[in-house]
Write a structure and sequence with these properties.
Length: 308
């Protein structure tokens, strides 16, 4: 799932030349391993710890990681020209994390991960009213096809329908809103400013929310939570490195390899295997996401050509 800096989508800002595609692919695939491990750990903790507490422990680790950056900058990294947008983005990330953990507490890991991958389609749809972007018929068609994949997995109206499927979709929607706000902040605030805001705001909000439900974790659970935070951070760091070395359109198909790791961990740790309908729906969502990334690459290339 996508965490504070979450997840298998490309970062908004990178600064290295895109000239090492093989290295980028290896890094993107490796990032998926860490993200799947983080999500599996969250699911493993849900029977004994409240969802809010798992998210709080995750953010505690996240804050511990970025605190040296804040201290080194003497607080300068927290200066934002749009603090309200930074706050909104942070709240969206909290919602995305909570909804996803709620989802994996009831659903197989692979199913929740698959449904969470609809976020690129939601970003495309939301970019029209919120960013003023134009979306052509081909990208709209890709979104429609992706939603068909969701319907196949969810199967509303059937005996197989589980209301818990709404949680990973709400997580994807919250993540999509965070990406929209990140785009609005591009060129206004530094990327590390957004990272540090997310850590501080998320930790403060969850520290208040966890008080009524807090359960004293065992040392084993604390160790698992520490692993969860480190795995999520490692996944994000590898993702940044990947998108510094290869273009998003090339890496998009390989970010979906995370579904393989999620399926493997779901089986090895929890004994869950996705059914045939989930496999079909996942294939459709992946195809839609890859095509959307392809059309985005073409749009950006045409925009650069128009600017000369």
């Amino acid at each position: 799932m996508p965490v504070p800096t979450l997840h298998p989508k490309p970062p908004v800002h990178v600064g290295a030349p895109l000239d090492r595609p093989l290295a980028g692919i290896v890094l993107a695939i490796s990032a998926g391993v860490f993200f799947a491990a983080s999500d599996a750990t969250s699911k493993y903790l849900t029977p004994t710890l409240p969802v809010i507490e798992i998210a709080w422990m995750r953010w505690f680790g996240f804050l511990a990681i970025v605190t040296p950056i804040i201290v080194y900058s003497r607080g300068d990294i927290l200066r934002s020209r749009r603090p309200s947008l930074q706050m909104g983005r942070s709240i969206c990330l909290i919602g995305s994390s909570l909804f996803f953990i709620m989802g994996v507490s009831s659903l197989p890991l692979a199913s929740a991960t698959t449904l969470n991958f609809i976020s690129p389609m939601l970003v495309t749809a939301l970019s029209i009213p919120l960013l003023g972007e134009q979306v052509g018929i081909r990208r709209w068609s890709a979104i429609a096809v992706g939603l068909l994949g969701v319907v196949i997995i969810v199967r509303p109206g059937s005996g197989a329908f589980d209301p818990a499927v709404l949680y990973p979709m709400l997580s994807a929607a919250s993540w999509a809103m965070a990406i929209i706000l990140t785009r609005k902040l591009a060129g206004i605030d530094r990327p590390w400013t957004a990272m540090c805001y997310s850590a501080i705001v998320g930790f403060i909000v969850l520290s208040v929310a966890v008080i009524p439900v807090f359960v004293m974790p065992s040392w084993r659970e604390i160790g698992l939570a520490a692993f969860l935070a480190c795995a999520a951070t490692a996944g994000q760091y590898l993702t940044v490195l990947a998108f510094q070395r290869a273009p998003a359109s090339l890496l998009a198909p390989f970010t979906y390899v995370q579904l393989i790791w999620a399926t493997a961990l779901g089986y090895l740790v929890f004994g869950n295997l996705p059914d045939g309908w989930t496999g079909i729906g996942a294939a459709i969502i992946i195809a839609s996401g890859v095509y959307t990334a392809h059309r985005e690459r073409i749009r950006l290339r045409e925009a650069r050509a128009a600017r000369g």
